[in-house]
Design goal:
about 375 residues; binds iron/sulfur cluster
Length: about 375
């Protein structure tokens, strides 16, 4: 048997671009080099699945068709349009960056990855993705897909969590960037990683780079990349209290870093028991109050899991609340609530609808 020589970076690039021309995935955010659109999609794609982003991207563009429209919107409108995508700091930074571009930069986006990184919320990955797609700058957009594909192609067997290995992968990525079509090359690597060179089980039989791939030829692609196990997320018990009064439910605007600016029901973090729930609602409804448990829910954040028990309580007077609103059905639907509140919101809607139905029956009986 003759010794195998893995492909040179130039060969890999040519072969992968040819494959991309025939097999690229179609998404609503592809096929444009307009910086506003590329920026928006790359920010959305950072922590959200590609398939999920499509419809959000289109709705968002319908509401805010250009950077000036986004800059003019209120933070609440932006958070509402982002509702369900999670990682809301992205939306807040997007809004800040839009105001910066529309104002100080007179509507013109920075044209290099180094300058793009100065925008709020644009890290190394997004800056490289935007610069390569919108301006053809030959920089690799190193995300999980690229790190995995490149560590396999070049048989990098060290822990990819360490800065020196990251740098090595970046340099290898850089060596794959063509002088033209850098954006396509980044997207080709992403598509290969998302459809063929999958985590855990690469489908090497279908891979256009099989002949070039060092780990396929000499190693065990499925075992790459080497990553140290992450610490498991912290489990937090949370009592979620739906406090009703006069056909309305109490929502408060989060001040804490996690989910800041979004509306939630009264929460007690650290204890999900009925005593904790009671303590939480007492401040707003001191007399004759009791809580009733109506359900449970679980939400997984990156570093934290909320194990929630949901309670219903009733107050006799809607005391004014700082940073909060007594919301009827319509207000409940219009305010931005995080996905973590989905089950509780459903329970609140149910109660409000029953009460509205009850009121109508009472009126009819009069
Ligand atoms: Fe990934 Fe296998 Fe292709 Fe190598 S041959 S790039 S491991 S799918």
């Amino acid at each position: 048997m003759t010794a195998h020589h893995p492909g040179t970076p130039g060969q890999i690039t040519r072969r992968l671009l040819a494959w991309y021309d025939r097999h690229q995935r179609a998404f609503p955010f592809r096929g444009t080099r307009e910086p506003y659109r590329v920026w928006l999609s790359e920010i959305m794609l950072q922590q959200t699945r590609t398939e999920t982003v499509g419809p959000y991207y289109e709705c968002f563009l319908a509401l805010f068709p250009d950077v000036h429209a986004l800059a003019r919107a209120s933070e609440q409108e932006v958070l509402k349009a982002w509702e369900g995508l999670g990682y809301y700091n992205r939306a807040r930074n997007l809004h800040k960056a839009a105001r910066l571009v529309a104002g100080e930069l007179q509507g013109i986006f920075p044209t290099t990855s180094a300058k793009l990184r100065q925008l709020p919320g644009v890290g190394p990955y997004a800056a490289a993705a935007i610069a390569s797609i919108a301006y053809d700058e030959p920089v690799p957009a190193m995300d999980g897909n690229l790190n995995r594909v490149i560590s396999r192609l070049f048989l990098v067997e060290e822990d990819i969590g360490t800065p020196s290995v990251r740098r090595q992968l970046y340099d290898l990525g850089l060596s794959l960037m063509p002088a033209r079509r850098a954006g396509d090359m980044n997207q080709a690597l992403m598509d290969l990683g998302a459809t063929i060179c999958l985590p855990g089980t690469p489908d090497c039989a279908r891979c256009p780079l099989q002949a070039d791939c060092k780990s396929f030829q000499e190693g065990d692609p499925a075992s790459l990349p080497v990553m140290q196990a992450k610490r498991p997320p912290r489990q937090v018990d949370v009592a979620v209290c739906l406090l009703f009064c006069d056909g309305k439910v109490l929502l408060v605007r989060r001040q804490e870093a996690l989910l800041r600016g979004l509306y939630v029901f009264l929460l007690h973090e650290g204890d999900a028991g009925p005593a904790a729930a009671l303590m939480r609602v007492r401040r707003f409804a001191p007399r004759n109050i009791f809580v009733e448990e109506v359900g449970a829910a679980r939400h997984v954040f990156t570093h934290r899991v909320w194990n929630m028990r949901i309670y219903v309580a009733r107050a006799t007077a809607c005391l004014p609340v700082k940073d909060g609103v007594w919301a009827d059905l319509e207000t409940l639907a219009s305010l931005p609530l995080p996905v973590a509140m989905r089950a509780a919101k459903q329970a609140a809607r149910q109660v409000l609808m029953e009460e509205a139905g009850g009121l109508r029956i009472d009126k009819a009986a009069e």
